[in-house]
């Protein structure tokens, strides 16, 4: 009962705060991302005059918690969510019914890979090397299973009639393999949000500058960086609309 009372008090305070904001003319925006990345990406698409961007969420994790795409889903956009963990996929498929949701992984080659599942599911990974690091850092691995993986080309040909406007990529150790597999002469999403820091339990991860080099080499500019994630925009698209 005590916990329920605290929750009700918190909800009441939140409603009062939002009401005060409305009364004094403060514009309030809710973010579902880890560090407000969805609001930055929203600003980019507003600048590009794209009202309802399509998206591919690779490593979706959860329908809305720490999600870079849920804000757009709520506003009426549609896309594809890829989540290999069956437990997390079940949550996504129930809450994101207007999206196409795939219970698979993404990799440089199609086939099967072993998914290492941790009690903190944000750490789930296909990388055995990353899994060993997490275990050494004291994280509990609770499952390990073979999961079907597709390529980027597979997903494009099966799920999209046109190239998605936005790609969110967070796959714990597989990011560069996936980026290297994309044919950027054929597929040019307007905006990417990519996790660009290695894991550290004490918040001292190393920035993956190699991803900057890959994206710059394909003529994407780094628009913003939240330390954990970097946001890249197709340079020619940005110049044509701004």
| Count of helical regions | 9
- Rg, alpha carbons: 19 Å
In CATH, the homologous superfamily of the largest domain goes by the name: Vaccinia Virus protein VP39
Report, as a whole number of angstroms, the end-to-end distance.
54 Å
Structural class: alpha/beta
| Share in helix | 25-40%
Please give the CATH class of the largest domain. Alpha Beta
How do the helices and strands line up, and which of them pair or pack?
Blueprint lengths: L1 H23 L12 H11 L7 E4 L11 H5 L4 E4 L3 H10 L4 E3 L2 E2 L4 E8 L9 H9 L4 E10 L1 H8 L6 E4 L5 H7 L9 E5 L13 H9 L2 E6 L3 E6 H7 L1
Parallel strand pairs: 1-2, 1-7, 2-3, 4-6, 7-8
Antiparallel strand pairs: 5-6, 8-10, 9-10
Notes on the structure:
The chain is 37% helix and 21% strand. It is α/β, with parallel strands linked by helices and 242 residues long. The chain has two domains: 1-30; 32-241, Rossmann fold (3-Layer(aba) Sandwich), CATH 3.40.50. A seven-stranded mixed beta sheet has the order 3-2-1-7-8-10-9, sandwiched between helices. The chain has a three-stranded mixed beta sheet with strand order 4-6-5. The longest helix is centred in the first third of the chain and has 23 residues, at 2-24. The relative contact order is 0.14.
List keywords for this structure.
242 residues, alpha/beta, Rossmann fold, 37% helix
Brief rundown of the structure:
This protein has helices at 2-24, 37-47, 70-74, 86-95, 128-136, 152-159, 175-181, 209-217, 235-241, and strands at residues 55-58, 79-82, 100-102, 105-106, 111-118, 141-150, 166-169, 191-195, 220-225, 229-234. By secondary structure, the protein is an alpha/beta fold. It has two domains: 1-30; 32-241, 3-Layer(aba) Sandwich (Rossmann fold).
